[in-house]
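Changelog note: in this version the structure field was regenerated for every chain. One regenerated record is shown below for reference.
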Amino acid sequence: MIEQAIRDRYFSLFRTCLAGSEETELSEAAELGRDLMLARVPLGEIAKMHEEVLLRLANEAPEMTLPDAARSTTAPLTQLMTAYDMEFPKWLQSHYQLITENITDIIWTLDMNLRPTYVSPFIEHLIGYTVKETMSLTLEEMLTPASFDTVMKAFEEELAIEKEGQKDLFRARTLELEVKRKDGSTVWTETKANFLRDQNGQLVELLGITRDITERKRAEEELRYKTEFLDSIINSASVGIFVIDNNVKYVFINPTAANILGYSYKDWIGKRAGGYIHPDDLKKSTSHLLKALHGEPTNYQARLKAANGSYRFLDINLAPVTREGKPHVIGIITDFTERQKAEEELRIFEKAFKTTQIGFTFSDKSRRILYTNPAEVEMHGYDTPEELIGKDVAILAPPELRRPMTVEEIKTFKRGERESVNVRKDGSSFPVYLRSDVVFDIKGNPLGVAMVCEDITERKQVEEKLRKSEENYRKLAESITDIFFAMDKDLIFTYWNKASEEMTGIKAEDALGKSFFEIFPDGEGTKRIVAIYRKVLKTQQSQTFVNEYAVHNINYVFEASVYPTQDGLAVFTKNITERKKMEEALRKSEEDYRLLVESAAEAISVIDGDGGFLLMNKSTAELFGGKPQDFIGKTLWDVFPKEVADERMAVISEILRSGQGQISEFSAPIQGVMHYFISSRQPIKDRSGKAKSVLILSTDITEQKRMEEELRAKEKLATMVEIAGDVAHEIKNPFFAISSGIQVLQHRLKLDEAQKETFEFVFQEIMRLDRLINQLLNFTVRLEAERAPLQITTLINEVIYLKQGLLQSRGVKIRKTLPKDMPPLNAEQDRIIQVLVNLVQNAIDVSQAGDTIAIACRIDTNKQCAVIAVKDRGPGIPESHREKVFDPFYSTKKGRPGIGLTISKKIVQDHGGKIWVEPRKKGGTAFVVELPFLRQGSGQVLRPRWPSGLRTRPRTSEVKRG
């Protein structure tokens, strides 16, 4: 309603204009228009006032005839409206800024990769990051791990629902999340989010509203703490507490009450009261219990029987309570013998009050301070508690807050929490947070008020800094402009700015006063937008969404933020077409790059300057025994031994320093196995040209290395076989002559005992050399022999029989595990027995009296072979020596030539099998042999294979002598 004074001003201006002084009063009309604008007078009211002035002129100034021309004289109205129109956009913009600056909820959007695409300005107040800083953060960087997992789980669930075809446009999910602040602290928030869809109903973004619920969380935690604290007090109280229902049965009893007489908790619950009372005290106890059930508190003493048969005297206090509308009795029992313990616990409780940093004061019904802890004394600038004891508690409050309380007020006083101001001894004041509660005795009479006081000076200083920061942000926000239009609650356009005209091609005069459907086509996209607008009107919660719109046959992408206002809606729109194109191009590029990296057979990874994995493809992760996500964020030291990680880090540091790539071979143990790689390492540089990380592309050449090593070993063995055959063949005949000569001399010469011992020693050494030469010949030369079907279990039993005498003399036992049905081998019997004898002999040599040698045989159905294992309890073979035991002349036993295992390996390989050594967890060694079964239908005779180094077939006599 326009005030009468303004109406009179306008009447005077209009009358002056009709009298011919129109130009001289236009400035005052403009000033009046601005006043009406600032008073927020609607345009309709101004037009109505103009009609009333014309009528008033006709009535009050009949001498002034108003022809049609005079009636249409609107110069003051025109100037007034011009001023109004100049002020309205400024007011509207200021009004919008005021709304946005005072919205304490955070409005945000995320793309489908969960990267921020928009966040409202209040984010800086919540977490300390500016909008620009927030847009560069990932969701994982903004949330604590637990909250991040909660979001990812909810996101996956929503996508699963979407795949099921449940496309509910208004489906939303509300989550409580813990958000990281810039200063390292966290804040609890409640986030409500739903999907934004394109015109085809496909998901394009997530829209959410986040609000700070830290205080609510704190209140919930404090309530939980108080509840737990109360339960803790009841359950840990030194006095027994119990509850009896109207059926005179125990329904609750705390641990102290349950155990006070040595009984268990089950011995009380559900039992009738009086079961443990001394017969002489039963009548008295029953009388007091009935009195309490009828609403009268009472106290008495009685004797109760303990579990050990003795009676203890208890002090019992009963108080009536009501539970679910039925009378109950709560009782407190005190064992006289435990009084000292209760006093000690009281002293501990008092000590806790004295050492806590939170102030505590207890005053009686007259407001006199009965107790105050040291923290309260220090907080208020006093030296000792005695300065406060006996004083009115109001001494701690400023004069304007001091007010006496009656006993009746204290009775009805409710537990409260509030911020206030307290006064120190020197008269200075400081902000505090107070928690107060009335303490009652067992009869329900008030004893006094307990007050907890916390100095919140530092918190207030922080809040003041935040307020100043918010003011600075508000000044910055005043300079930001966007496409803007406003609508009333019926979605009728009430404002349409210049940027809206330029972007849509729709003039303001064509938009104002019309509905949304009159301006835009009635399609699915329009209906979806209108649905969002109506939801904002209904919920009064802001929303942001992305919309596509064609202007002059050019498709644009807009990001619209919708805010509820007092009169309807305010909508701000940004053109994000180019950003969307860049995002799509980036997404496509990332997909192509990711596909290339993930499909590569080579191990690809990116490592930063701290040795952390920034990227890892599937091949690299599988090499480490996991998935890429298992290692992202981990470091070299998490996957390599320290010395290897240090070496790799030194190489990476040099590449980052020099900016030059490297290509080289390196080896590293991975999952307990040594791997060899050819690795290309190239620096990844930022825009300034500085190397920030290193791209590593590695090819595993472990198998190639193994094959090269195996080839070298075979070449070495072939050479040694050739040399050994030649040497053994050449020295066999001379050596036979030497042996014969020694034997002749031994029989022809007359030797004393010492000489005989010498000849015997020489002859034994000659025999040892003879065995060595025979082994060399057996290794290099074999007689032709036929292979026949053999039962390996039969051969194992024969070998055990052959070694039975030696086993008994050594005190060593054999435990065998042989299958009943074993397919036959196609093998040479003597040579397989030679292998088994050699392995059993080695096991006997390393065994002690009382040891047991285990021989086990099993069937490998996959490989179609027999697997024989000979296991001993000896000292074992070091890992570094396990491959050497099959080398010629290598031995761990003194006085042995070390060729037995070499021969055994060759025999097994000639039969198409394998032999290896492996450690045992509880000590000792296991030699394992694999021999293939006879193929069905195979009856051929396999000819011996002669070593390539043997130039001629040996004579039969030479072989026999060997």
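Spot check on this record: The longest strand covers residues 311-323. The chain has a mean pLDDT of 79.
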